[in-house]
Every structure is written in C-alpha cells, then in structure tokens.
Design brief:
The structure holds two protein chains of two kinds. By secondary structure, chain A is an alpha/beta fold. Chain A is built from eleven helices and 22 strands. Chain A has helices spanning 15-19, 44-48, 86-101, 119-125, 144-158, 171-182, 295-305, 313-317, 348-351, 370-374, 383-395; strands at 3-5, 25-28, 31-34, 54-56, 73-76, 79-80, 83-84, 106-112, 130-135, 162-166, 186-190, 192-195, 202-208, 213-219, 225-229, 246-249, 261-267, 281-285, 308-311, 338-342, 359-364, 377-380. In chain A, the strands form six sheets. Chain A has a seven-stranded parallel sheet with strand order 11-15-10-5-8-9-16, sandwiched between helices. In chain A, a hairpin with a 2-residue loop joins β2 (25-28) and β3 (31-34). In chain A, α5 packs across α6 (171-182) and α7 (295-305) runs parallel beside α11. Chain A is flat. Chain B has one domain: 3-Layer(aba) Sandwich (Rossmann fold), CATH 3.40.50.620. The chains are: A alpha/beta, B alpha/beta. At the A-B interface, α5, α6, β11, β13 and β14 of A face β3, β4, α3, α4 and β9 of B. β22 (377-380) of chain A pairs parallel with β15 (238-240) of chain B.
Chain lengths: 396, 261
C-alpha cells in the first residue's frame, strides 16, 4: 500500500487529519487511519506528521528509457473554416515563454483543408518557430478518429516533449485519444503551466472539485507531456511581422482516414452574438431576471460592452434562455476579464464556472447573497433600474 | 440495442467547503451522489431501450459504497449493474481508469453503444470516455445534445460546439458522451425503487476483468499530483452605493479606470 501508518510511533495528535486536503484521514483508537478510497496519495500527511509515523511509498510508473530523445513544444492549432482558435495563439505565446526556460523550439501543428493560404504564416507571426501543416480536403472538419490518427502518427515519429492544446470541445475530444494512443499522461483544463527549474518537467496546474482545490500535476516517466489549457488564461502575442519560421507540409496519409464517423452538417446558430468562451466581457442573468423577455436588456448591455450573454442554471431550466448560454458546473466554464452577474445569487454550482474571472460585478437586490460577497464591485439595487442607466452611461 | 452506461460516484460539490483555517476540503456531512451528467446519459439509454428494445447495463468503478449509485441507476430504468471494485485501482489517473473500465466493458461484452456524461463534476477531465473508445477501438462523439436517429447500426447525433452544433453520423458500437441539454431525467418510480432494492449488483475485481496490474492504480498512471493547495479565496471588493444613477456612473468609471472597457 502506498500510505503506511506506523501504529507504534503514531501518537494520535491528529495533525495529519486536519491537513489532509481530501478528508481521507481520521483518528481510530487514537491512531491515524487512512481511507484509501478518498486518498489521492499527495503525501501532505507525511510532511506534517511530527513523529514521522507516516510513510508514503511512491509507487509509480516505470520510466521509459528514451525520455531524453523527446524535444520541442508542440501547440495543436485548432482551426475551423481556416480560422485559428484564439486559445491556440494564446498557447503559442505561452509555449515561447516555456521554451525560453529550456532550449526548445515551438511548433504549431495544423490540420486543415488549405482554404486559408495565410494560416501557416499567421502561426509563425504569432509565435511558432516551425509549422507542421497537414492539408487535405478530408481534414476540413474535425473528426475525432481521423484527427487523432494524424496527430498520433506525427507525435510518434517526431517525439515532441510537450503537446499543448486548447480545452475546447475539439481539444477535449482529441487530446484524450492521442494521449491514450501514445500511452502517456494528459492533464485537462489547466490554468497555469511552468517548467520546474530542478527537473525540467512541465508542471501543470488545474482546478479540481469545482475549483475548491488546485492541483499541480506532472508527468514524469512518459513523453510527451500533454495538457489541454483553458482559454483566456494566457495572452496571445501581437503579430510580429519580422518573425520568420519554417513551414513543413506533411502529406496526409490516407490510412489515417476513418469512415466510422462523419460530420454531416456544421450549424452555427449563435449568430452575430459573441461566443461565451471568446468574450472578454460576459453579462449573465439569473433568477432575478424574472422572465425570458428581460434577457433583451442583458443583450443590450452586452452589445454596449462588446460582450456575450451568459445565464445561471435557474434561468436556463426555466426556459428563459437556451442551454448554450449556461455558465457553471453543468454548463460552460468561463474566465473573462469582466463578469457581470445580474440577479444571480451565486450558488456554488454557478461560482465554479466563473470564479476565475478577473473582475466580478454583481447587481442584486440581496446584499448578503454569495455573489455580492465575492464581487469586486457589488451594486445593491433593482437591476431593471440600474442596467438601463449603465447602458446610458456607456453610450455617453 | 444493448447499451452500457458508465457512471461515477462523486461528492455533492454543493456541500464541499473549504475550512478557512486549515484550507482543506471539509468532507464531513458531504453526501455522495451520481455524477449529474451521467444521469442524463442513463436517461438517454433508457429512452433508447424503450424505443428499440434491448437492455441497459450500468458500470461504475469505485469503492464498495459506490453500489448506491448503481442501485439508484436501476431505480431509474437500468437492467443490470456492474461494480469494478479493487484496491489495485486506487490512485488511477484517467489513463489507468479508461483501461480498467474498458476491460470491464470487454468482460460484459455484447454492446452496441456506450453512453456517459460529458465529464464528472469532481475531476472535470472529460478524458475517460474518449480513453475507453481508444481502448475498445470504436468511434466516439463527445458533448452530444441530441440523438436524431438510431437505426441500422448507425446513429446521427448533434454535438454541441462553441458556435452551435455539428450533425455527426457515427457507426455503432461507439462511445457517446452527453451534455445536459439532451433530456430531462425521470424521477424513480415506485416499481423502479423496488427493483433497485432487489437487484443483484455484480462486483468485479482486477482479476475478473483480466487486467494487467501494471496498468492500474499509481503504477499505471503517468500523471501524478505533486502538490495540492487552496486557491486564494476571492475577497469581496467595493460596495457601490448611492442613487441608481450614481451607482451606474461609478461602475462605468471604475471599469474604465481599470482599463477593462
């Protein structure tokens, strides 16, 4: 067993019990007891035990013997209709920073149909040293199997040390497949990345338990080290026209084409509205909006701010606004620069979806509700009176 | 149409709190529940069975107490339940978990479709569904908001995207993960509750699923947690007081000054 408690030396002080982040320890007959199903083997208990009664036997995967042969940082450049997702550019900028801490080059890998001839150039101007471009009509739309076959083949042959990808619908379908095919580790939905100066490993920080706990994760014994990363946590580079780089066109291998799934139609029905995940500003409404007709007011505010409209589960469940707008545990996770919560009390399930926003504004008639307590700017009052005034103020 | 639904038992996050002094999770009084997104997968499976015939088998990996969510699933219309429970799987990351669950599914056999929630609300990885698909060498569609058709060994579904949705045709068997929009789960009937009480939950061990022990638990997990910490709790900020006109003006000024607008 990975955690051993020496009953002879344990004095039953309970220091470990109060320090366990997962509530896995308790005192039984005046001796520490670990509940294995709750234990995440983080080892915090061993470090706080005053009598060294706890030992963590670090069982781990055997290290592969070719770890040294992996190099370079890859960013999967997600494209739709030839347009690269914002988060891919954000990751190129972050990859440049990581590459400066450890001599490495930054590669962008793009799978596309070639309709945007400028795509590779754009990736170089925004941070890539090299672009691997696989272009074929079959790669126009994302297909889980075909895309993962292509990326797997490239990674297997060329051995990148790190692969980063946006935590988008595509990224979170594609990367888990590639990681399992490569039999390596993948950390989902990271919000911080850095290189450990001692080991040179990529340390991946991500929220767990709905953001109540942050975990730093590493992948020591297999390569590549892979992570999907939340949008908007890193800033993209200004395009630098003086940057130059190499573009390698890799032919599409027909063996990688899967016919077991096929996109029949791509429907973009959110229209002219700003996408929630791309928005710098989100105006969100909850139960306090009182009815579907009042979301027009939020839309007006969002338009005045150049932002998107979000909603709490209560508003979505009441049928006031489609599910695509729902922020929170069973909806989307967002981290805009400004989140304006209108008539949202701030239940934990909603907070976990937006609490990493840079600035939170709450407008609510209840000054004691959780959202008002965590807001950077809390406005107590009638939102139907205040929002039109804000719109007026913005239009001045 | 035989459908397998993967279910996870998770802590009810609504009650997970941080002890402000020790900055650790307070688990006391926190109940365990069926991962909410898995409930939508189960409902979709039961609806497909009601339309097309066949059976629904729920499968869960967890400690013996996870039996509770499997019984709940039976009360909601599942026919059979399998619990993979073994100390050897403790500490598994998503690579090891997808391997363990795919071995269990191989053992159950005879399936046309595997359904699950988009992700679990404790780990939030969304990686196990695709991992199972790779291990079983079958196709996948994630984040499905609607099943349009299901016939002749094929399914047409709508995958939710950032811009709207994609209509995807997939050959069965396949792994499909679902979002909340797909349906409105039913409430357990009295008959369902009775069935849940009587149900035999089949418990499998690592030996039963013929797993390679080096691919389970910490040994089978390439990722490990090096540090756990509490995020800085958000501190409240400024209360903007005054008449509504002043409040509106102060807010816009503050946001402009902070260069947020």
């Amino acid at each position: 067993m990975p955690i051993k408690i020496n009953k002879e030396t344990c004095v039953g002080c309970g220091a470990c019990v109060s320090q366990c982040p997962f509530g896995a320890l308790s005192l039984v007959d005046n001796c520490a007891f670990v509940e294995e199903t709750k234990c995440k083997f983080c080892g915090k208990c061993a470090t706080v035990c005053p009598c060294e009664a706890i030992t963590v036997v670090k069982e781990e995967m055997e290290a592969k013997d070719d770890l040294g042969s992996y190099k370079d940082i890859w960013v999967f450049a997600e494209q739709k209709k030839g347009q690269v997702a914002g988060v891919s550019f954000e990751l190129l900028a972050k990859a440049r920073e990581l590459a400066s801490q450890k001599p490495n080059t930054v590669w962008a890998v793009v799978l596309h149909d070639g309709s945007n001839a400028a795509i590779c150039d754009e990736l170089i101007k925004k941070g890539a040293d090299k672009v691997l471009s696989v272009s074929a009509p079959e790669l126009k739309d994302f297909d889980d199997l075909t895309y993962s076959n292509v990326l797997y083949r490239l990674a297997k042959e060329r051995k990148p040390e790190i692969i980063l990808c946006g935590a988008t619908t595509i990224g979170r379908a594609l990367m888990p497949r590639v990681a399992v095919m490569l039999k390596t580790g993948l950390t989902a939905d990271c919000t911080q990345l850095h290189i450990d100066p001692e080991t040179g490993l990529l340390i991946q920080t991500r929220p767990a338990f709905g953001g109540n706990i942050m975990a730093r994760i590493r992948c020591q014994n297999t390569r590549p080290q892979m992570a999907t990363v939340r949008h908007k946590v890193f800033a993209e580079m200004e395009p630098d026209a003086s940057r130059s780089g190499e573009v390698e066109a890799v032919p599409f291998n027909k063996e990688d084409l899967s016919l077991r799934s096929k996109v029949l139609e791509v429907v973009e029905n959110i229209g002219e509205q700003v996408k929630l995940t791309d928005a710098n500003i989100i105006v969100s409404g909850g139960r306090g909006m009182k009815g579907p007709e009042n979301f027009a007011l939020l839309k007006e505010l969002a338009e005045a701010l150049g932002g998107a409209v979000g909603a709490s589960r209560a508003a979505v469940d009441a049928g006031w606004i489609p599910y695509a707008h729902q922020v929170g545990q069973t909806g989307k996770t967002v981290c805009p620069k400004v989140y304006i919560a209108c008539g949202i009390s701030g239940q934990i399930q909603h907070l976990v979806g937006m609490q990493s926003s840079d600035v939170i504004v709450a407008i609510n008639k209840d000054p004691e509700c959780p959202m008002m307590k965590i807001a950077n700017y809390a406005i107590c009052g009638d939102l139907f009176e205040i929002i039109p005034l804000i719109i007026k103020e913005l239009k001045k | 149409m035989n459908i397998i639904v993967t279910i996870k038992q998770v802590p009810d996050a609504a009650n997970v709190r941080i002890n402000p002094e020790t900055k650790t999770l307070v688990r006391e009084g926190v109940e365990s529940m069926m991962n909410p997104l898995d409930a939508y997968a189960l409902e979709e499976a039961v609806r497909l069975k009601e339309k097309l015939g066949g059976k629904v088998t729920v499968v869960c990996m967890g400690p013996p107490m996870a039996e509770a969510v499997l019984r709940e699933a039976i009360s909601l219309g599942a026919d059979e339940a399998v619990l993979l429970s073994d100390r050897a799987v403790a500490g598994s990351d998503t690579l090891a978990t997808s391997y363990a669950l795919s071995q269990t599914i191989k053992k159950i056999g005879d399936y046309d479709l595997i359904l699950g929630g988009k992700q679990a609300i404790d780990g939030d990885t969304a990686q196990v569904g695709p991992g199972i698909a790779v291990n079983l060498d079958i196709p996948q569609v994630t984040c499905v908001r609607k099943v349009r058709e299901c016939a002749d060994g094929k399914m047409v579904v709508e995958r939710m995207t950032e811009e709207g949705y994609d209509v995807v045709e997939v050959t069965l068997p396949a792994v499909v993960t679902v979002v909340k929009e797909i349906n409105e789960p039913r409430i357990a009937s009295l008959k369902g509750k009775m069935a849940a009480k009587r149900a035999q939950i089949k418990v499998m061990t690592a030996a039963d699923i013929e797993a390679d022990l080096t691919r389970l638990g910490l040994k089978g997990s390439p990722t490990n947690v090096v540090e756990i910490f509490s995020p800085d709790a958000r501190q409240g900020g400024v209360k903007i007081e005054g008449a509504p006109e002043e409040q509106a003006k102060s807010l816009v000024t503050a946001l402009k000054e902070a260069q947020l607008l």
